[in-house]
Design goal:
The chain is globular and about 75 Å long. The model has no long low-confidence stretch (mean pLDDT about 95). It has four domains: about 1-45, no CATH class; about 50-205, Alpha-D-Glucose-1,6-Bisphosphate, Chain A, domain 3 (3-Layer(aba) Sandwich); about 210-435, Alpha-D-Glucose-1,6-Bisphosphate, Chain A, domain 3; about 440-554, 2-Layer Sandwich (TATA-Binding Protein), CATH 3.30.310.50. The protein is an alpha/beta fold. It has a six-stranded mixed sheet with strand order 1-5-4-2-3-6, sandwiched between helices. Strands 16-21-20-19-18-17 form a six-stranded antiparallel sheet. Strands 8-7-9-10-11 form a five-stranded mixed sheet. It has helices at about 1-15, 15-30, 35-45, 70-85, 100-115, 130-140, 175-185, 205-215, 220-225, 240-250, 285-290, 325-340, 355-365, 375-380, 405-420, 425-440, 455-465, 530-554, and strands spanning about 55-60, 90-95, 120, 145, 155-165, 200, 230-235, 255, 295-300, 305-310, 320, 345-350, 365-370, 385-390, 395, 440-450, 470, 475-480, 495-500, 505-510, 515-525. Helix 4 (about 70-85) runs parallel beside helix 5 (about 100-115). The protein is built from 18 helices and 21 strands.
């Protein structure tokens, strides 16, 4: 009965007809003792979506544990109070993707910010997340809001917040904003919040500035003289138009579009899960590449902050494979190092990414840093020249975009592929060259998705109480409980095992999904020129480590 009372109270104050209708139907079904409706109702009201360093993200629907107009309005009001308290009474840039209710959430945010005396600058149409991140610095705004759920399922949406530096929020800002959101939540219905009707709808000059700047990241000498054939998919997201314009401005031959996935569609009809990492997500791209005898496949996720790459594995280009995020990370890091004239600055990566970047950075004369998982930690690093995380996130232009940018990363990969093609080489041969130089760094991941979040701390507790001294035959040379923190890394829930020979295992809960992930790394030096043997040994090591990790996760 308590949840019924909560739902009726919500219904009386929810100004959005769509969620009102959903809630009325749920209440009617729950009154008839429909077990699925009762369970859904309890899930909608059992807790609240927590605002953190990733902002908000969750399933659309009524109640405090769903993404809806009420939750978004409170988040905008909390952000406004935070900015006013800091004395930053200036402007906030607002962008949104093509998901269900994204435009509505963006416009409600503009109304709330306007009512709080802050000037909203809202894009006139959908934009990729990197364009929003660029706009914050370009327009010298005090903050930015991007309404997106990135690569989550169709039923989700999200709310990402940036501060004036152009980087995602980190502690203590996230905690302070969350406190203001709580104050707003307890102050009364959202319809009583001050709503303004004054904001600036941006013209196309900000997007043109992004296009002009980003296109200059690649060498026209390389792009204009290549016959590189690139297949591109936007994964039903908002990156397609921007990517095609970038490729044209940079001077590349026109990429071949995966037509069925090019236009934005919030239902993501051709993929079970709109994430290029998921099995089957780039099958249409591979089919297109085979039919056009292409050299390269580029895939963005729906908000285009991630970039996936696939390459042919045979001379006739009839078989393909998708590169691991760490392989793309190594290719970009090595290419940026080769192109740099100063050899100064910092190359950085998240702690769960392969440490091959450390070897590349040190051999090339760059400083190197590791961070916690997430670009909120990588983007703000002073002197950053390149950063990446294995989950397909790459920052190749940190002065302009202090976040992962799947569009600029795609251009740099195309530039490298075109350069290599002019030398009768390929991305695979470049990976071989890197391995010969620094060794084979093979990585893999094992994960378990849980239906009850309470299972996650139990898995972590079980591991902490029974620490292994060896993993798949390799001695544990160092154990670090990441929850304790260190001078280099803030505390986070995770376990790190360094192994004899450079191998490594990291166990951590996912920050965006109900999963526990285990990240595996095997390092094998190349003896003479027998690269194939080294890779085979590394893969065998990973298979043995994955078997052990599977038993940990049950």
């Amino acid at each position: 009965m308590n949840v019924i009372a909560q739902a009726r109270e919500w219904l009386s104050s929810d100004p959005h007809e769509e969620t009102q209708h959903e809630l009325r139907i749920l209440l009617e079904r729950a009154g008839q003792m429909d077990p699925l409706a009762v369970a859904e109702l309890h899930d909608c009201f059992r807790t609240s979506l927590q605002f953190g360093t990733a902002g908000l993200r969750g399933k659309l629907g009524p109640g405090p544990n769903r993404m809806n107009l009420v939750v978004v309005a409170r988040a905008a009001a909390g952000l406004a109070q935070y900015l006013n308290h800091k004395g930053a009474i200036g402007s906030v840039v607002i962008g949104y993707d093509a998901r269900h209710n994204s435009e509505l959430f963006a416009k409600v945010s503009a109304q709330i910010l306007s009512g709080a005396g802050i000037t909203p600058l809202i894009f006139p149409h959908t934009v990729p997340t990197p364009v929003l991140a660029f706009a914050i610095r370009h327009l010298k705004a005090d903050a930015g809001i991007m309404v997106t759920a990135s690569h989550n399922p169709p039923q989700d949406n999200g709310y990402k917040v940036y501060l004036g530096s152009g980087a995602q929020i980190v502690p203590p800002a996230d905690i302070e904003i969350a406190d203001y959101i709580q104050q707003v939540t307890h102050s009364g219905p959202v319809r009583d919040l001050p709503h303004g009707d004054t904001w600036t709808t941006l013209d196309h000059s900000t997007e043109r500035a992004y296009l002009d700047h980003t296109a200059k990241l690649v060498s026209k000498e390389i792009s204009r003289d290549t016959d590189l054939r690139t297949v591109y998919t936007a994964m039903h997201g908002v990156g397609g138009k921007t990517f095609m314009e970038l490729a044209h401005k940079a001077g590349f031959p026109e990429p071949i579009k995966v037509e069925k996935q090019f236009e934005p569609d919030p239902m993501f009809p051709t993929v079970a899960f709109p994430n290029p990492e998921e099995p089957g997500a780039i099958d249409l791209s591979i089919d297109t590449a085979i039919s056009h005898s292409a050299d390269l496949v580029i895939a963005n996720d729906p908000d285009a902050d991630r970039c996936a790459v696939a390459i042919p594995t045979t001379d006739d280009k009839s078989t393909w494979r998708m590169l691991h995020g760490d392989e793309v990370g190594a290719l970009l890091g090595s290419w940026i190092a080769q192109q740099s004239t100063t050899k100064s600055g910092v190359m950085a990566q998240s702690i769960v990414s392969a440490t091959v970047l450390k070897a590349i950075a040190e051999q090339s004369g760059f400083e190197y840093q590791q961070t916690l998982t997430g670009f909120k930690w990588i983007g703000p690093i002073p002197g950053l020249v390149y950063g990446y995380e294995e989950a397909l996130g790459y920052c190749v232009d940190p002065e302009a975009v202090k976040d992962k940018d799947g569009l600029s990363a795609a251009l740099k990969i195309m530039e490298l592929a075109a350069h290599l093609k002019s030398q009768n080489e390929t991305l695979q041969s470049e990976l071989d060259r890197i391995a010969m130089q620094v060794g084979v760094y093979a990585t893999d991941q094992v994960s378990v998705r849980v239906s009850e979040l309470a299972v996650i701390p139990e898995i972590m507790r079980r591991l902490r109480s029974n620490l292994p001294t060896e993993i798949a035959g390799a001695q544990v040379t160092e154990f670090i409980d990441l929850a304790i923190g260190s001078p280099q890394l803030p505390p986070t829930d995770g376990l790190l095992f360094n192994l004899d020979g450079g191998g490594r295992v990291i166990v951590r809960p996912s920050g965006t999904e109900p999963k526990v992930k285990v990240y595996l790394q095997s390092v094998v030096s190349v003896d003479g020129t027998d690269l194939a043997a080294a890779r085979a040994q590394a893969e065998a090591n990973l298979a043995a480590m994955a078997e052990v990790a599977g038993t940990w996760l049950g």
